[in-house]
UniProtKB/TrEMBL annotation:
Name assigned to this protein: Pentapeptide repeat-containing protein
Coiled coil ranges: none
Domain of life, per lineage: Bacteria
Length: 215
């Protein structure tokens, strides 16, 4: 039975300073179902280890919010601002993150499984040991990001990388092409050429060829 004012005994370690957002959280703690946080300002809150299954963070502001070990299964975070947020070991299974801002966010050890991360700015993000499994990474900006020891499993990998992107120990399989920026000149690499560039950065990713359609 759910305790009054908690979710199976869980409470935020720190409520957001924004009173509207704080009140929405308090109401949700008394309810069932997902959190409706569309467009509200959860910046500065500590929501670590919360179970936000099938919640709506669409267009929400989560700047410097802590979501360590949180579970966002099947949630919608489209257009949300996670700048500087801490999503270490966060479960992002089947989450829609399209158009989200993840600049300088921490996703170390997070799980992105069957998630969508299209048109996302993840520049400067830390994704050390992050698992990307069957996830759409399309027009995703990983410039200056840390992808060391990240694991990729048959992901779309139409991303932007640069000389500051860390790839040591990254492994698995991806579909290209990727845009590489060295100096001022962007170039698109795919197949063996992309594989070799990643290997030169200490990564071990195998670039798969798209399956041919049968006519």
């Amino acid at each position: 039975m759910m305790s009054s004012g908690t979710r199976n005994g869980w409470l935020p370690s720190r409520f957001p300073p924004d009173e509207t957002a704080a009140q929405r959280l308090r109401e949700w703690l008394e309810e069932e179902g997902g959190l409706d946080a569309v467009g509200i300002d959860l910046s500065g809150a500590d929501l670590s280890h919360g179970a936000f299954w099938e919640s709506w963070f669409t267009g929400a502001k989560l700047v410097n919010t802590k979501l360590v070990g949180a579970d966002l299964y099947r949630s919608d975070t489209q257009g949300a601002d996670f700048t500087g947020a801490d999503l270490t070991r966060c479960s992002l299974i089947r989450v829609n993150m399209d158009n989200a801002i993840l600049v300088n966010a921490v996703l170390d050890g997070a799980e992105l499984v069957k998630a969508s991360s299209c048109d996302v700015d993840a520049s400067g993000a830390s994704c050390r040991g992050t698992e990307f499994v069957d996830t759409f990474l399309i027009n995703t900006n990983f410039r200056s990001a840390d992808l060391r020891n990240a694991v990729f499993e048959e992901n779309s990998f139409k991303v932007t990388l640069d000389e500051e992107t860390r790839l040591e120990g990254a492994s698995g399989t991806v579909f290209g092409p990727a845009v590489i920026i060295e100096g001022q000149t962007p170039r698109e690499l795919s197949g063996d050429t992309l594989e070799q560039w990643i290997r030169s950065r200490g990564g071990n990713l195998r670039v798969l060829k798209p399956a041919r359609s049968v006519t």
